[in-house]
């Protein structure tokens, strides 16, 4: 499920449900399973953000639509 509005014209918005079909180093391929674009495959680039000032042992992953 998307947690951000990435591309509203292609219905990649909050709570859009997707099935991940492939994960690569820099992109995630997924298939939309809700809304009017059911069955459409999308490529979402992976962007990893880290906070150099944080002592937390994890990173935040943000995903944006190409």
From TrEMBL:
One of its GO terms (molecular function) is hydrolase activity. One of its GO terms (biological process) is DNA replication. Its EC number is 3.6.4.12. InterPro entries: Pif1-like_2B_dom. One of its GO terms (cellular component) is replication fork. It comes from the Eukaryota. The keyword Transmembrane helix does not apply. Keywords: ATP-binding, Helicase, Hydrolase, Nucleotide-binding. Residues 1-22 form the DNA helicase Pif1-like 2B domain. This is ATP-dependent DNA helicase PIF1. It comes from Apostasia shenzhenica.
